[in-house]
Amino acid sequence: MPSIVRAEFTKFLTLPSVWIVTAIICMIFLFLHIRGLGDHAEMIAHVLPDGQYDTGNRLVDVGREITDLVYVAPLNAGLLLPALGAVIAGTEFRAGQLGLSMVAVPNRARFVTGKVFATTLCALGLWAVFVAVGFVFAHISVKDWDPTVLWQSAVFLSCARLLLFMATTTLIGFGITILARSTLVGIIFSVVTIMLVFAQVVAMISPTLDAILVPFSAARNLLLQEASGPPTTAGAGHGALVLVGWALCSVGAAAVTMTRKDAR
Q1: What pLDDT digit, counting tens, does each position of 58-117 carry?
Q2: What is the pLDDT of residue 93?
Q3: Least CB-packed of 27, 40, 113, 260 within 10 Å?
């Protein structure tokens, strides 16, 4: 199995499309953090004795606002993670690559498992980089004010939830692409789900359906329970279960399809 995972890594890391999507995700992530430095400096410069900041409309907790960006920036950049999963899976549908892969790894169950492990490890690597860089930016903001806000248990819990989000959404895009045998379908799925969560169309019709049918709404439920903006449609635990369910169903269906269809 390690050799299969290593081969899958080598395969998709040589594709420009994987690097392009990853670069776009990273640029969005860095932009949000760089923009946040100015906002955080303004908050700290005018922080009240109780740690609050008056935005003009409401009072916000400065420490919470700064530490929230550690996971909110990857969440926003992570809207493209299904597209990353799609281009990773799409390596098999280029000029008969799938047939060659089947010759190299005749056991299709092991082949699919290896691809899933490689994709998950890719998401794990991005998560580790995003969390580390996020803590660096947060430390820059609070180092002359109150560095202890970085070490609250709520911050680490949110980072763990972020890992679940990044792994599952990448696998969802991966599974949809394998199931449809088309990178374009996986990317279209990613775009449609982004549009649904921003437009809140399903949420206006039925919050219950929105919490189940829209993966990014489940991600909001998982990570943004106390954030401003449109209300969440379910609890954090429900959001976690929905994301895991989507990932398991899409990858499971893809595995069944891969083992039963011809390698073309």
Answers
A1: 788 888 888 888 999 999 999 999 999 999 888 766 655 555 555 455 566 777 788 888
A2: 66
A3: 260
Rounded CA-CA distance 208/194 in Å is 18
> Which amino acid, one-letter code, is at 67?
T
Q: Domain span at residue 143?
A: 2-260
DSSP 90: G
Tokens 């005018």 -> residue = 46
* Tally of residues, the chain: 264
Query: Percent of the chain scored above 90 by pLDDT?
Result: 34
Provide the 10 A C-beta neighbour count for residue 223: 24
Cα(173)–Cα(247) distance, rounded to whole angstroms? 9
* Residue of 147, 126, 127 whose CA lies nearest to 138: 147
Q: Do the beta carbons of residue 85 and residue 169 sit within 8 Å? A: yes
Best CA proximity match to 223, nearest among 151, 168, 150, 145: 168
